[in-house]
């Protein structure tokens, strides 16, 4: 049985689930004296009829958490007023507990108490669950090498404030041709890199409509549980991809309503799970692609008004992602010996990483087209955003294929747009559509085609 919680108690509630499952937002089978989940994870199982400590004890317990779990003062950028600022921000989601080391999880579930206001007589304790994480719950392992949220101590923790290294910053200089002043004709000339990039970005809407996937959103990401905002976004993209003069007004009305519903619902939703945060960011990003690049003045004005919200949601994702700091410097043979425990977990984590860098890239592209720049303390490119190049991993359609490709094929961890090492050792066969877009921005469209052709069959 779990140890009792210190005094200063409030009256016992009618909460049915154990405290550990409530805090982790996981389903509890309510077995006594200890539920199956607590038994499997070897954590204390305390039911709400036990006395619960006051909020002052909650604050004291929170102060006792390991330093790497403390998000106070964490911000994305130099100023706390920055658009990318992550401090102050919403409290750490309790569903992250399953990604912590077991000693930290035990501390959290046994020592942290619920806010007394959340344990009133009408509360059943059945908090919203993260269905995607629920599916993986039985696979959590304290020695997990690749998780959505880092579980290592020390320098392997890579927070969004990690500055970009010299190699990453130097790579930006090679992008000067596409980052220069934009003239209106460039958007319409098929021979310009800008035309190519904008065409690919505008294609995200049709990608979502026809394949239920994009270069940054894996086709199996929401296979078992599709959040409502993603389903509504899919519907809007389907309508937009099939618009014509006869149905244009209805398509625009549906798009406007869906965006309004998403913003109103999610801005008021302060307890979103990691899955919900990713889904709402992807949905808003896809809406932004339509609104900013459709050409309609009204849509563009509305899209511009929501850019700060998208930046804020991207900042939240930066705070919780696994940024591959532990794998970035490993030799290929060593990295292949450390596969993720679950294919679905890698899909989720990589989709999150790709969403961040692609959304920031599109925001920057739009600012360039307007010949405007964000302030230096709001520059996301001063920080490290890692992602993985491997067409074989991204396009694997089964868990078996994924793990076979992990062992047999190389994969490369890229910092932002730093492709130099990949261009030396990689092959065209490794490049998926996401990498192709970013590589075209880095070296140019024709140069990317040449690399893909020349190295496709390189051994």
A few lines on this structure:
With 459 residues, the chain is an all-alpha fold. It has 21 helices and 2 strands.
Topology, pairings included?
Layout: H1 19-24, H2 36-41, H3 55-63, H4 102-111, H5 131-136, H6 166-173, H7 176-179, H8 193-202, H9 204-211, H10 228-241, H11 248-267, H12 274-293, H13 297-305, H14 307-320, H15 332-336, H16 343-369, E1 386-389, H17 391-394, H18 399-408, E2 412-415, H19 420-425, H20 433-443, H21 445-455
Antiparallel strand pairs: 1-2
Helix pairs in contact: 9-10, 10-11, 10-12, 11-12, 12-13, 12-14, 12-16, 14-16, 20-21
Describe the protein's architecture and organization.
- Keywords: Metal-binding, Nucleus, Transcription, Transcription regulation, Zinc.
- The longest helix has 27 residues, at 343-369.
- The protein is globular and about 70 Å long.
- The protein is built from 21 helices and two strands.
- Strands 1-2 form a two-stranded antiparallel ribbon.
- It is mainly alpha-helical and 459 residues long.
- Mean pLDDT is 76; it is low at 1-13, 49-129 and 135-160.
- It has two domains: 19-109 and 125-156, no CATH class; 166-455, no CATH class.
Major β-sheet annotation: 2 strands, antiparallel
Low-confidence stretches: 1-13, 49-129, 135-160
Q: What integer is the average pLDDT?
A: 76
Structural class: mainly alpha
What portion of residues is helical? 40-55%
User: Any idea how many domains?
Assistant: 2
Keywords: Metal-binding, Nucleus, Transcription, Transcription regulation, Zinc
InterPro entries: Zn2-C6_fun-type_DNA-bd_sf, Zn2Cys6_DnaBD
Protein name: Zn(2)-C6 fungal-type domain-containing protein
Domain Zn(2)-C6 fungal-type: 17-47
């Amino acid at each position: 049985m779990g140890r009792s919680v210190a005094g200063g108690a409030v009256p016992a509630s009618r909460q049915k689930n154990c405290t550990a499952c409530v805090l982790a937002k996981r389903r509890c089978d309510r077995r006594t004296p200890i539920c199956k989940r607590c038994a499997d994870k070897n954590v204390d199982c305390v039911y709400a009829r036990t006395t619960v400590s006051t909020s002052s004890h909650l604050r004291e317990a929170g102060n006792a958490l390991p330093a790497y779990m403390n998000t106070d003062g964490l911000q994305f950028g130099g100023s706390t007023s920055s658009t990318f600022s992550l401090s102050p921000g919403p409290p750490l989601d309790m569903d992250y507990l399953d990604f912590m080391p077991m000693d930290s999880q035990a501390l959290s579930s046994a020592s942290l108490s619920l806010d007394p206001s959340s344990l009133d007589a009408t509360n059943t304790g059945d908090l919203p669950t993260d269905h995607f994480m629920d599916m993986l719950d039985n696979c959590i392992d304290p020695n997990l090498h690749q998780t959505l949220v880092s579980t290592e101590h020390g320098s392997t923790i890579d927070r969004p404030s990690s500055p970009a290294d010299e190699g990453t910053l130097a790579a930006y200089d090679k992008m000067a041709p596409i980052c220069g002043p934009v003239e209106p004709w460039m958007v319409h000339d098929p021979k310009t890199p800008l035309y190519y990039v904008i065409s690919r970005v505008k294609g995200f809407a049709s990608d979502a409509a026809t394949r239920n996937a994009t270069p940054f959103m894996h086709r199996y990401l929401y296979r078992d549980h599709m959040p409502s905002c993603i389903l509504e976004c899919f519907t809007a993209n389907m309508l937009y991809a099939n618009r014509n003069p006869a149905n244009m007004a209805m398509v625009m009305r549906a798009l406007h309503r869906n965006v309004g519903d998403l913003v109103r619902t999610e801005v008021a939703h302060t307890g979103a799970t990691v899955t919900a945060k990713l889904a709402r960011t992807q949905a808003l990003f896809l809406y932004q692609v339509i609104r900013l690049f459709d050409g309609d003045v009204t849509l563009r004005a509305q899209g511009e008004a929501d850019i700060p919200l998208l930046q804020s949601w991207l900042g939240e994702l930066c705070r919780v992602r696994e940024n591959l700091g532990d794998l970035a410097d490993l030799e290929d043979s060593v990295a292949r010996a450390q596969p993720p425990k679950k294919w679905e977990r890698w899909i989720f984590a990589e989709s999150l990483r790709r969403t961040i860098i692609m959304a920031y890239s599109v925001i920057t592209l739009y600012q360039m087209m307007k010949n405007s720049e964000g302030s230096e303390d709001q520059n996301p490119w001063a920080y490290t955003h890692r992602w993985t190049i491997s067409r074989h991993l991204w396009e694997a359609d089964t868990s078996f294929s994924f793990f076979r490709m992990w062992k047999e094929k190389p994969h490369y961890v890229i910092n932002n747009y730093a492709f130099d090492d990949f261009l030396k050792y990689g092959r065209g066969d490794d490049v998926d559509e996401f990498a192709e877009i970013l590589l075209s921005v880095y070296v140019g469209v024709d140069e990317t085609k040449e690399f893909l052709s020349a190295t496709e069959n390189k051994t």
